[in-house]
Amino acid sequence: MPFLDLETNLPQHGIPEEFAQKLCSAAASILGKPKERVNATVRSGLSMVIGGSSAPCAHLAISSIGVVGTAEQNKEHSAKFFEFLTKELNLEQDRVLLRFYPLEPWQIGKKGTVMTFL
Fold first, then answer.
1. pLDDT class of 111 with cuts at 50, 70, 90
2. Sorting pLDDT into bands at 50, 70 and 90, what band is 25?
3. Residue 92 to residues 58, 61, 103: CA-CA distances in angstroms?
């Protein structure tokens, strides 16, 4: 059950239509998870600075069970997420940052319990 939280200083009209849906599909493919289990939040128009500059930029936090826990996994994921984000948001690679957070099943609540028991 991946969670994607994208924050950007691009204005809402600078985000392609259906971007959240495209992000979910891309993440499902990249992480090898069913699209129905991918959750995404997109926040635009934020006050942001990356590398000392407030030029257009984006930050993506990726949390998931079992697929973002090693440097080798994240190196592969990173290349694919960068390809997607730079193309879709028309940003240079140095204006995008990713953060990976491995999750355990007991850290995600669903249907009145936690994923461990589902």
1. very high
2. very high
3. 10, 18, 29
**Distance between CA 9 and CA 29 in Å, rounded?**
26
Report the pLDDT averaged over residues 16-32.
Answer: 96
Block residue for tokens 């609540």 = 109
Report the alpha-carbon angle 73-67-48, nearest 5.
Answer: 80
* Strand, coil or helix: 89: helix
Please name the amino acid found at residue 79.
Answer: A
* Segment 24-52 mean pLDDT: 97
Alpha-carbon distance of 3 to 31, in angstroms, equals 11
CB 101 within 8 A of CB 63: yes
CB-based contact 70:77 (threshold 8 Å): no
Stated pTM of the model? 0.94
Listed residue (45, 42, 50) closest to 22, CA to CA:
42
Instruction: Give the list of residues 6+ apart from residue 36 with CB closer than 8 angstroms, or none.
Output: none
